[in-house]
Amino acid sequence: MRRLFLALPFALLPLAVAHAHEDHEHDHDHAHGSLAAHEHGVARLNVVLDGKALELELDSPAMNLVGFEHAPSSAADKAKVATVRAQLEKPLALFALNKAANCSESDQELESPLFGDKPAADDDGHAHDHSDIHAHYRLDCEKPEQLTNLDLSPLFKAFPATQKIQLQLIGPNGQQGVEATPAKTTITF
């Protein structure tokens, strides 16, 4: 399932290096600037279209999706986590794709300490004091040539605390890095 994403960090390395300095200047909550920095209101989305396979990998602070980052203890917190997980289990409702491409979900993986997974650790093995939610989807598209753009408006509507999505896209026209916002939700392949 992760075949396409294994190459993604290398393909985007020049872009990551270019943004690392910028992120470092604006990232006051973390000791080192990186594209994986945890920033409320900001999510990251990697998209790869390779032949008929479309892979989407979303990383977001839990605050953007459920409104908190602590382990759910109350019935209301547990219900909110369950609702968000159910929303994330329906990628075709979150990512608007041209229906003519005839895409269907073939695989998905959802991970978060809020879902009962062990807390993520950084490169040094230290556990984070905040929770992220990671969603990885693989879609099979019968007519990938019909995929001309990706509309993120359903994602922004479902999770209004998400103010921007830093998107890395690799498709038939090469790679691009763009920033989507509630006012600019459509990304061209």
Folded structure, characterized:
The chain is α+β, with helices and mostly antiparallel strands and 189 residues long. The protein has one domain (3-26, 43-188). The protein is 28% helix and 31% strand. The protein has six helices and eight strands; from the N terminus they run ααββαααβββαβββ. The protein has helices spanning 3-11, 13-26, 62-66, 75-88, 91-94, 153-158; strands spanning 42-50, 53-61, 103-111, 132-141, 149-151, 164-171, 174-180, 186-188. A hairpin with a 2-residue loop joins strand 6 (164-171) and strand 7. The chain starts with a helix and ends with a strand. Residues 6-36 have low confidence and may be disordered.
| Percentage of β-strand residues | 25-35%
Alpha carbon gyration radius = 16 Å
SSE arrangement, N to C: HHEEHHHEEEHEEE
The helical percent reads 25-40%
Q: CA-to-CA gap between the ends?
A: 22 Å
The number of distinct helices, counting runs of at least 4 residues, comes to 6
Shape: globular
Unreliable runs:
6-36
Q: Total number of β-strand segments? A: 8
Number of domains: 1
Mean pLDDT value: 82
* Spatial strand order of the main sheet: 3-4-2-1-6-7
Structural class by helix and strand composition: alpha+beta
Biggest sheet descriptor = 6 strands, mixed
InterPro entries: ZrgA-like (IPR021253)
Protein name: DUF2796 domain-containing protein
Organism: Pseudomonas alkylphenolica
Keywords: Signal
